[in-house]
Amino acid sequence: MKNSLKTQIESHIEFRAWYRKIANDFNFDLQKDREARDYLSRILDKKNSSYNLEEVLLSFKENIQKKEQICVYGCGPSLEESVDYILSNLGKTFFDNCVNLAADGAARLLIERIIPIDGIITDLDGITKRDFFKAKFVIVHAHGDNIILLEDFKKLIIDFPNLIGTTQAEPIHNLINPGGFTDGDRILTFILSFLIPQQELYLIGMDFDEIVGKYSKLNNEKCYLAGPIKLKKLQYALQIIEWLISKIKIPLYLINTKPISDKFKYLTLEAFKERF
């Protein structure tokens, strides 16, 4: 497995200091993370005998590399406005010509707007079962607080062919630890080694602000004020992406987001439209 794609993606050793800091700060139970990892692993072991993680990873890598623009969608309050503006001014063709990767509940907006989804990265608390099959690939994350959701989605995890499991504990044979903390920054750690020089990354709906978008959780009808824990999670996500900037060797832009760090490049919606 030395030269496997699984090994290529895994950055848990490099990310270990982050994980320890986060676990201490949030008082996470590391044993519960391992229990969640092992539970998801047992579910994956029940998949069809034709399931091969390396083949799924290769297919995902090829999918990531086939287009020059990669759009990563977060659940921030700017998500809906940004997607609707792009639809109105650049048309659905723009999205058809992009790799579209959704952090958890952001997938629901893309589904509503009939935008193709190449991948959903999720810990399962922002999507429904009917959303699961709207993406080419689904990357399911196991952590100590979502074991009940893993049980609830068990049949779908078994049945969905292009399924990849991730963990924040030590990786095992059928789960990957790509690093990352929230669904949004985990997308970037996961695809980091797949990016090629001619590509560009656009982060849409990534606001890292005190207002949380309505697609962040199920059954929200409007945006809401982040509580202390959610706000701290968003701040960690921001810090992790700042840390990743030097490792991402292609241009990365935040779209329609108020400046929050001098490490990022920002584009207004108008400036974004002019690029195309």
Describe, in plain words, how this protein is organized in 3D.
By secondary structure, the protein is of the alpha/beta class. It has one domain. The chain has helices at residues 5-9, 12-26, 30-44, 53-65, 79-90, 92-96, 106-112, 147-152, 154-159, 183-191, 228-244, 269-274; strands at residues 69-73, 98-103, 117-122, 135-142, 163-167, 200-204, 211-212, 224-225, 252-255, 265-267. Helix 7 links the parallel strand 2 (98-103) and strand 3 (117-122). Helix 10 (183-191) runs parallel beside helix 11 (228-244). It starts with a helix and ends with a helix. The mean pLDDT is 95.
Question: What would the principal axes of the Cα set say about the shape?
Answer: globular
Percent helix, as a range, is 40-55%
Instruction: List unreliable stretches of 5+ residues.
Output: none
Q: Return the structural class.
A: alpha/beta
Number of helices: 12
Series of H and E elements: HHHHEHHEHEEHHEHEEEHEEH
Oligomer: single chain
Summed over residues and divided by their number, the pLDDT gives a mean of: 95
Q: What's the total number of strands?
A: 10
CA radius of gyration: 17 Å
The number of domains is: 1
Beta content: 15-25%
Report on the biggest sheet.
8 strands, parallel
* Terminal-residue CA separation: 41 Å
Strand order of the largest sheet: 5-4-3-2-1-6-9-10
